[in-house]
Design goal:
Strand order of the largest sheet: 1-2
Number of strands: 2
Order of helices and strands: HHEEH
Largest sheet: 2 strands, antiparallel
Shape: flat
Helix content: 25-40%
Length: 73
Amino acid sequence: MKKSSPPPVHQALPLLKTVEQMSKISGLGEHKLRELMDSGQIEYVQNGNRRLLCEAAIWDWYARNRVAACVEA
């Protein structure tokens, strides 16, 4: 009888990430992320002394601040 392999284990990623984690994911520096939070430009959740971010907050900020490329013919 053939042994079946166990089902793949999926690691659950946290929905909210620390500034340090989000900096590595987004490419924005930790200082810049804290600056954006302090000025109210990016949403975050306060959990004790930590401020947590979700990726949607980064994408929202990006959508509001992007500059369209000019394509010349």
